[in-house]
Amino acid sequence: MTTRVAVIGATGTMGRLICGLVEQADHYELVARLGSQSELSEMLGAEIAIDVTRPGVSQGVVDFACANGLRVLVGTSGWSEDRIGSLSHRLAGRDDTGVVIIPNFSIGSVLATAFATAAARFYDSIEIVEAHQAAKVDSPSGTAVRTAELIGRARAELGPVSAPHTDQRARGQQVSSVPVHSLRLAGLLARQDVFLGGPGETVTISHNTLSAQAYERGIMLALDATREARGVTVGLDQIVDLGFGTTPTPVGASVTGAGASV
């Protein structure tokens, strides 16, 4: 059965990538490409809306799509805990729509975040450095924020990380007590390093995105999950079994990955 898809933000780098993937897939049909000058009503007629716009635009796109009974796949940063909670409340009990929010479509990135989360219980000093292309408008990245929040959740019984001198601006922005540092540089695509320190040793968990091809598998996995989405699901780790002995929460939970800002 073919599912009709509209891409909002179709003229951007990620939008063009997603349009190409949808067009190549046998079980999807690309019925609308929306750019910055398009009316949101142009997505009507689709069954799934894929939002890869900007943080200031994404909320309106998702609200319009859900109000018209479309399911939505969000690849845009800027979704705070409050916004996710509010959206989940509005969608509670509805079977005709659902939203899947993915901070990062890269399988490697999701694995690196999972590794850092697992290691966080063993080290008190933890900091994140994320680096992206100069054109990325938001910082810290949604991936870095989600990583820090998952680290904070893993350390809930241990307390905040040890992060001295955070009153100094150069020490980064604290997210769930974890200092996050953002670089925006020409020549980069995306990189994240999580540094963990303890007595006599450090551990560094790095993920480096070398090309947009890294996102393709995750995009299609997330799109497949969105076909039956209900409520709000946050994170590719809630769709894919990463092999950590836990079962991903089925799409349809009211809020999966609650507390994440993406």
TrEMBL record:
Residues 4-105 form the Dihydrodipicolinate reductase N-terminal domain. It is an enzyme of class 1 (oxidoreductase). Keywords: Amino-acid biosynthesis, Cytoplasm, Diaminopimelate biosynthesis, Lysine biosynthesis, NAD, NADP, Oxidoreductase. It catalyses: (S)-2,3,4,5-tetrahydrodipicolinate + NADP(+) + H2O = (2S,4S)-4-hydroxy-2,3,4,5-tetrahydrodipicolinate + NADPH + H(+); (S)-2,3,4,5-tetrahydrodipicolinate + NAD(+) + H2O = (2S,4S)-4-hydroxy-2,3,4,5-tetrahydrodipicolinate + NADH + H(+). One of its GO terms (cellular component) is cytosol. Its EC number is 1.17.1.8. GO terms for biological process: diaminopimelate biosynthetic process; lysine biosynthetic process via diaminopimelate. Pathway: Amino-acid biosynthesis; L-lysine biosynthesis via DAP pathway; (S)-tetrahydrodipicolinate from L-aspartate: step 4/4. The keyword Amino-acid biosynthesis applies. GO terms for molecular function: 4-hydroxy-tetrahydrodipicolinate reductase. Transmembrane segments: none annotated. PROSITE patterns: DAPB. The keyword Lyase does not apply. SUPFAM superfamilies: Glyceraldehyde-3-phosphate dehydrogenase-like, C-terminal domain, NAD(P)-binding Rossmann-fold domains. Residues 109-237 form the Dihydrodipicolinate reductase C-terminal domain. Belongs to the DapB family. This is 4-hydroxy-tetrahydrodipicolinate reductase.
